[in-house]
Predict the structure of HTH-type transcriptional repressor AllR.
Amino acid sequence: MSLSTNSTLLRAIALMEEVIKGEGTLTAAELGKRLDITKPTAHRLLGQLEQEGLIRRDLSGRHLIPGPRLKRMAFGALSNPSVNASIRAVLKRLSERVGETCNLTVRDEHEVIYFDRIETNWPVRVQLAPGSRLPLHCTSSGKLFLATMPPKQRQGLIDSLTLAPYTPHTLVTPEALEESLKHIERERVSTDNEEFIEGMVAVAVPIHDPSNRVLACLAIHAPCMRQPLEKLLELVPIMRESAREMEKVLEE
């Protein structure tokens, strides 16, 4: 590999890293300035990365965000057999300890994906298979992903969402949702109080990657007839312990 090729590759990698760190707040010009890359070079490299599906523009057309290919690579890290086995073991221990269904979730654009889950043995439970896609605005994980975004990115995403009323408890106005997100941002814990499925409550805490970005969420849900939300919130310290265990796995 020539020095020129090596330099181009390193710049492309650096640009992708900055796009991930920027979380939808950086323009092409700002990225070039951050990395001390000339404007023509930055635009050329970003154009190539965009063409390959590694990055893409947000709804405004100005800011750059990870593309589908880069996201698949990130999800692939979680799917690594040794990493997945270790994280699943933590998830299983948590489920056995709390006696409820525990979920590992990730965000894909406007949706939450159930990446993995350990089901409870209770006869009354909500069954959602791994791979299920759920809305952001009325799930505990979805609201946590929204709450931990930079304000500009969060506002843009909320503006693009259809705040469908899944139950009478769903937050269906941007103002009500934003008020809830501010509280979640402060507390770093999110709830779903029968907002997605009537009769079901859920709690979620964040899982950070080595750069301290929210990579995934750890969530517990249960029928409120068995676990009122107040009772479920008592499990947050245990959930945080499990989230830290998962973060250590990702650091290895």
